[in-house]
């Protein structure tokens, strides 16, 4: 029989160790390849779903930008109309305000003057005649039927 020397035992141990190490590395590489395949598939799926979503988001952003531009145009038009209305109001007030106040004051003065003449009229002109009798104006509302003074 052949005796096994220490170098041969060491060689066998090293060979077994390398075989186990290569097996572990092969399993690890197989799992890494499987993980990379799954990751590649996941990235492809996400890309397939993300591209239409990004296109929709881009369309929505463009639409919102168009609406904002329209609102901005409307706001500037409203501001212009407001300033024009303010200028028109100021013009009308300065053009007609003074003369209208003068006409109103003149009308008030005329009414007051005409009303003042009635108050200055003699008492007999303001009297009422009731059943053949003259009653002064101050007693008009106080007289009732059937009562004698």
UniProtKB/TrEMBL annotation:
Keywords: Membrane, Transmembrane, Transmembrane helix
Membrane-crossing segments per the record: 12-32
A Pfam family that the UniProt record links to this protein: DUF948
Ranges of compositional bias, category Basic and acidic residues: 117-126
The keyword Disulfide bond belongs to this UniProt entry's keyword annotation: no
Residue ranges with Basic residues bias: 139-149
Listed name of the protein: DUF948 domain-containing protein
